[in-house]
From TrEMBL:
CDD domains on file: STAS_SulP_like_sulfate_transporter
Protein name per UniProt: STAS domain-containing protein
Keyword Zinc-finger: no
Keywords from the UniProt entry: Membrane, Transmembrane, Transmembrane helix
Length: 668
């Protein structure tokens, strides 16, 4: 028992005995051609030609999961429950977020049908719920405010209605996404990093909150758009505060309080006892509708109500083509933001549930969904975190849940939608504000982001502040530029560190981080980390010279004079060695390799032997072919280079003493 315990407590060891290798010898001993003799690899055998049906099934994933392999007996019941849960969320959210887009409340319900059906047939995510998204509705609403005049005023003959402008934005955004799909630009969403998206959405939440103050308080102010939108809006509220509607304010405060109390204290307790989440937003909407239907409170206190709600499905209408050029830039930003947010959510769910996604196929699904939706009075659509989470937690297995949800919304549009006409708009604005609580509180995460990474923190705070102070588009552009600038700077920065050896190991670590590490006598080990290119080549040379010259004075280079039998051995300079650990080399271009050759040549001329160790295979052949210094040796590891150097020094030392004349004793 004690022996077994001792074996378990003993630190694992690595014991290896092998020859010291140089790169060419390593290749020869393992039946691999030397780098300089390698020829291009033989062409791979041609791939098996794919049939036309294979492309069709890849382009329309629903052929597999819905028409061929759907498990009706196992999954349909759960998908139906998930679809019902998503539909009851879509009703209040669709009408509420339509306010952000400056369009009729039924537009949000249309978005829960047409883009959703297209995505369910073409998308690869099984759980995201497409439809209204506050960020996209707000960005579209800004464009609507700029170009819509409802055919009145001086431009009555050429004016555009709000829905015409909105559908033009939707069409262009969809076409941009389809163009990205054609050119396989699915990875373009990585331009918007997670930190950037968090800062952007948190700042947009502030703008949404500001835009809803008019509805929440009943203050008579015009909606601001463009630069300095938020500061100007707060100034307008301060100037027009005397017009506040106190009944509207009371209803807003009551609605917000009910939703917050439920979410904080009752939600988990009640939902744990139900088969699906309690649709508190829909319940509040129905109660408010009934209350203001049977009473005259809204009329007595001059509250703004929803008004006429059209019943039925929208008519097919082509968006005005003449508007495409005017809204193009805004639509491009909306397309990129919508795709990035949707993909981030889809990737999060797919990684959690372990199924693959096709980023380019997602572009096709979302782009075609927007194009189709633009013919049916839809705004640009995106995935909602709350609805997607509900679809997944209730037990939805496939996009059949979205199809069920769309069917329920169609029923609402045909027969039920008109019952919400007495509903005060402040109730929907209250639902929006409560839904934004998580985004608004993201500002509290900034200290943690800053502590972990100063660059991420800078991207977050700059994006957040510029979006709020300036404008959505300007702030997003500034955030993207700053993020890419940091990536560029990090790409050209390099690090040069002196390494030492940990006692009784073959591990070589940074001397400034490990106190037990010590430099190997007569060997300067230098680690280079980063790329080596035309931009940072002079920085590389300067740092390399600094660390190799440090501590290498003439005294350390002078050979000791040895006296043997009254004769002096030949004095001279002792040659030191520089080992360059290139394991962290990311990339080297021709200018960088040329500077490497010049630096090596300078070290050799100063009396150093130079060894290159652990050069990545992707750069090794390129460096060897473009390196003019032929005396450089290449080693697979730093330890190989160090041992080789120590053995060489020992041989030189032994041969020096063996070459001295030996005096024979008298009498022999």
């Amino acid at each position: 028992m004690n022996a077994k315990t001792e074996m378990m407590d003993r630190q694992p060891e690595i014991n290896t005995q092998r020859d010291v290798y140089q790169v060419d010898a390593l290749s020869a001993n393992n039946n691999a051609p030397a780098m300089i003799d390698r020829r291009p690899a033989a062409k791979k055998p041609p791939k098996k030609k794919r049939k036309c049906m294979d492309y069709v099934r890849k382009t329309i994933p629903s052929i597999d999961w819905l028409f061929l392999n759907y498990r009706w007996s196992e999954d349909f019941a759960e998908d139906t429950m998930a679809g019902i849960a998503v539909a009851v969320l879509n009703i209040p959210q669709g009408m509420a977020y339509s306010i952000l887009g400056n369009v009729e409340p039924t537009v949000g319900l249309y978005m829960a049908v047409f883009p959703v059906l297209v995505y369910s047939l073409l998308g690869t995510s099984r759980h995201i719920s497409l439809g209204v998204l506050s960020v996209l509705c707000l960005m579209t609403g800004k464009v609507v405010t700029m170009y819509a005049n409802d055919g009145t005023g001086a431009d009555a003959g050429t004016g555009y209605t709000a829905i015409q402008v909105a559908t033009a934005v939707t069409m262009v955004a969809g076409l941009v996404q389809l163009l990205m799909y054609v050119f396989r630009l699915g990875l373009l969403c990585t331009v918007l990093s997670e930190t950037l998206v968090k800062g952007f959405t948190a700042s947009v939440a502030v703008i949404v909150l500001t835009s809803q103050l008019k509805e929440l308080l009943g203050v008579d102010v015009a909606r601001r758009v463009g630069m300095m939108q938020v500061p100007h809006t707060f100034y307008d509220f301060a100037d027009r505060f005397h017009t506040i509607n106190w009944m509207t304010t009371a209803v807003s405060v009551t609605t917000i309080a009910v939703l917050l109390v439920y979410n904080k204290y009752l939600k988990e307790r009640i939902n744990s006892k139900l088969c699906m989440p309690l649709p508190i937003e829909l319940i509040v909407t129905i109660v408010a509708t009934v209350l203001f239907q049977v009473t005259s409170i809204a009329q007595d206190y001059d509250m703004v109500q929803m008004g006429e709600i059209k019943s039925g499905l929208p008519a097919f209408e082509v968006p005005p083509v003449k508007l495409f050029s005017a809204v193009f830039m805004d639509a491009c930003v909306i397309a990129l933001v919508g795709y990035s947010i949707t993909m981030s959510l889809a990737l999060l769910v797919s990684e959690k549930l372990k199924y693959p996604l096709d980023t380019n196929q997602e572009l096709l699904a979302q782009g075609l969904g927007n194009v189709v939706g633009s013919f049916f009075s839809c705004l640009p659509s995106g995935a909602s975190p709350s609805r997607s989470a509900s679809q997944q937690t209730v037990g939805g297995k496939t996009q059949m849940a979205s199809i069920v949800s769309a069917g329920i919304i169609v029923v609402v549009l045909l027969w039920i939608g008109v019952v919400f006409e007495p509903l005060p708009r402040c109730v929907l604005s209250s639902i929006i504000v409560v839904a934004l609580k998580g985004l608004l509180l993201q500002v509290l995460d900034f200290p943690e982001i800053w502590r972990k990474s100063k660059t991420d923190g800078a991207v977050w705070i700059v994006t957040y502040s510029t979006v709020i102070v300036l404008d959505i588009d300007t702030g997003l552009l500034v955030g993207v530029v700053l993020s890419l600038l940091f990536v560029f700077v990090k790409g050209v920065l390099n690090e040069v560190h002196v390494l030492g050896r940990l006692p009784d190991t073959d591990l070589y670590v940074r001397l400034d981080l490990y106190g037990d590490a010590a430099e190997v006598p007569d060997v300067k080990i230098v680690r280079y980390a980063g790329s080596l290119n035309v931009i940072n080549r002079y920085m590389f040379k300067r740092k390399l010279i600094e660390v190799t010259r440090a501590g290498c004075d003439d005294a350390s280079m002078t050979m000791t004079v040895t006296v043997v039998d009254g004769k002096h051995s030949t004095g001279g300079r002792r040659t030191q060695c520089v080992v360059l650990d290139m394991a962290a080399l990311q990339y080297a271009d021709s200018a960088g390799v040329k500077m490497l050759s010049e630096s090596i040549e300078s070290l050799v001329s100063d009396g150093f032997d130079v060894y290159l160790a652990a050069v990545p295979d992707s750069s090794l052949e390129y460096i060897r072919c473009n390196n003019d210094v032929k005396s450089v040796r290449f080693f697979p590891t730093v330890h190989d280079a160090v041992v080789f150097r120590q053995c060489s020094n020992k041989k030189i030392h032994d041969s020096m003493y063996d070459s001295q004349p030996t005096k024979t004793p008298n009498g022999l």
